[in-house]
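Hey,
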Amino acid sequence: MVMAIGLVAVVILMKTMLSLWGQLEVVRRCSLAACGAMQIAVGVTLAAALAWTAVPGVAVADSTVSASAALPAEAEANQSPSTTVVSIDPAKAVIIPPGRPEWIAAGHEFDRRPDLDWAAVSSGPWKTRQECEKELANSVKQAADDYINAYLHSKVAARLLNYDGAALKSRLVRPGDVYAETIQVSFGPMEQVHAKVSFSDDFRQELDRRWRDIKAKVRLGQAGLIGAVVLSLLSTVFGFFKANTATRGQRGSSLQFAAAAAILVIVVAGVSAARYLYWF
């Protein structure tokens, strides 16, 4: 839509320039007319470029780091090539073996002790241990994302920080905080793995540091967009006055229409680009 409006505006500008060249009373006025029309064209081109380059995450494209570089990676050997989804009828009996740690009974609530925050997660029942480990990484990431959003007071913080589930599992789950069990259901035994996800002070300090960097880059992108729109509008206005002076007002209607088209393209492009930026 924006590109179509921009194309129409460029055609109008070209026609306006041709009309201006037809009134060559003196070389100076011709130069002024061409300069004014070109300034309007520059404003349209800049606005179209803003719309073209506005893609999701453009303001923070470099703000996140690769999870494999920021966190230690965990190799998942012998993973099952396919995942078997099992539906358990809650009305049927499920036998859970004794010996579960106390932190499993705490569920997914955070323990708000001064020295440690944590959450208990579960893979859910699966046929194989490999499937449990894979799903457990997803559960750890979900718990970590909830914690990150709550800690940084932002609904998009976890998305922008973009931690990997397997890396989070390797970092936030200590070896002694994993409990595997075999539960009995009506159609046979199922594997299930629980984990205690601990959020340490080091992890919180890393969140604070990376979040500050992301906010700085987002605000720089916001300032750049606003500045580009303002400069485009000013260029269009000054171009109109120069062209109108060069033609002694004889092409005022055509110039006004061209300037209005350019301003419309700039505004639409600015709004379209702003939709893909984060505002906080």
